[in-house]
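Dear V.,

Thank you for sending over the compound details. I've combined the ligand you provided, pyridoxal-5'-phosphate, with the protein sequence from our construct and run the structure prediction for the complex. I'm sharing the raw inputs here so there's no ambiguity about protonation or stereochemistry in the SMILES, which I know was a concern on your side last time.
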Amino acid sequence: MTSQYISWVTPNLDIYSRGRPTKMTESSSNKLLNGDSCHWTSNGKKSSKNGFVKSHGLFQEPQKYRRPREKNQNVTHNSSLYKKPFAESFEETPLLVAVLTYMGYGILTIFGYLRDFLRHWSIEKCHVAREKEEQKDFVPLYQDFENFYTRNLYMRIRDNWNRPICSVPGAKMDLVERVSHDYNWTFEHTGRVVKDVINMGSYNYLGFAENIGACANAAIEATEKYGVGVGSTRCEIGSLDIHEELEQLVARFLGVESSMAFGMGFATNSMNIPALTGKGCLILSDELNHASLVLGARLSGSTIRVFKHNNMQSLEKLLRDAIAHGQPRTHRPWKKILIVVEGIYSMEGSIVRLPEVVALKKRYKAYLYLDEAHSIGALGPNGRGVVDYFGLDPKDVDIMMGTFTKSFGAAGGYIGGKQELIDYLRRHSHSALYATSMSPPVVQQIITSMRIIMGEDGTTLGIDRIRQLSENTTYFRRELREMGFIIYGNEDSPVVPMMLYMPAKIGAFGREMLKRNIGTVVVGFPATPIIESRARFCISAAHTREMLDTALKATSEVGDLLQLKYSRRERPLPSLGWMAEESLLQD
Amino acid sequence: MNFKNLREYLSWLYYQYLLITGIYVLEPWEKSIFNSILFSAIAMVIYTSYVFVPIHVRLALEFFSKIIGSQPESTVALMN
Ligand SMILES: Cc1ncc(COP(=O)(O)O)c(C=O)c1O
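Below is the predicted structure of the protein with pyridoxal-5'-phosphate bound, written out as structure tokens.
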């Protein structure tokens, strides 16, 4: 096992051996660049020698003094690496909105302190967990800022979250109606059901969350044949023939040598990263990576350095520093360097700049861990994720991770890659050794839906769904933008975050949308930076044009009511009227 | 947005005020505390400016007219 794994252990440090970057001569930097097949300039043309001497990096820093309105207008850099335009935008927060948002949090914080004061002196009843009377001189267990935030801000608008659904979460769903008589401290079910709410929140990208149809039937058959529980781990007697079948299918779907499936996506990340890296290794992680990746990286005990979201200059700088300086104090080279990125970032709606990451990874001989939780199925002409979207070779990504929870309408996660990698993981990953294997109907659901996507069922249903999803995405994003909302992310990403900013609007948006029978997800701190609260729409192939239009109409209405159309891009003037004075607020 | 009458417009304005200050999420008694503090502060500002500003203006005028007292008479006459 160990000998097989040697190639994993030390990255080739040939760049280091050519001298420190600061001393690099013109000829060596040119040699380096000629070694690569592409030319790395921002306009795709070959630049003069001077340009390379000034910045040795693969990617040149953008000019410092320019402060554009967009946080990063990602279109221009390294366009030679992209086969099609890469349009991603993050419109800057309008200054007045930012100031008002902070003011709102300030006011709510003051009231939070007031309420805490009242609770402390037992003037009002305290509903939250607190120290027992006989333990009150101990170090407090229930006191920190998040707790303050939960108690005094989240509690007030808690009715927007954790809402029970009582049907299949497809394009439409039924909600359990609930009321609160004590301002969200407790809820009561009224026994009624809110019918046919349009679901704009589930990660049901390809619409495979169904209770009828081929997948559901296959899952029923599997249940009849195998039952639901397995009752053992994969390496004992929990390995069924359909597990093997699933893994072969996933490998074929991804275009990798081998793959392995796990019962839970979160555990796939948090248990497999520690199996891959350890002390003396370096993990370069995007700042917006999912909690499971962060947890995995922390559990591994490796050094973690964080680069700015999707910022290749930042990543390259970290890579260069890592190679030039090695480990802190000892200055030994790192055992391995693992870059951890996601395909689609679920809060930002941005797509990883994979061609550039792959170029960097190849140049600096690092390994790449790609989490395709949201992108698998949802991106690419064949639904095979970001690799397919950019037309790259799956072999360039060392570890392909993804989940079955989203596009496949099932549960679990996978890891795909080289045969040696998967063999290694089978013996060393905690979630392979200690977790009970996947339930058969779930496995069957994945197999059937994946076959449909691949077109192996002999129909074009899968490809139709993929096309429908991308059409819906383009339509929905375009309409929202034209209405004047600030939306984040890539044009092609089915995750559409729409900015709300102010704390009260988080609550108001969720409630107003539900009044119009649209279910949305609203997100605030800690999942986002404190002022960038947002609503998040997840587009699905199951949405029909009528549903999208209904949702858009409701969003527009609520947007007018709550004054959410912050965007200051060029667009047709809104109708004047009573609006005229109020629009001052939005500048 | 189109409003049918002034009342609807005013209630919309109040709603905006609730949202922007964040007191939309507060309980009614907290809302009234906030409103009464804010409005009494504003009322006080208006009242003090009503009471004191004319006095200060007059004092300032007197002060300046003293400074320019040495000027030809016509200017002083203009100041008065
Ligand atoms: C990027 C990413 N990785 C992993 C997961 C965890 O997957 P699962 O929900 O299957 O446990 C998620 C889930 O939201 C995710 O967004």
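A first observation: Chain B has a mean pLDDT of 86.

Warm regards,
I. M.
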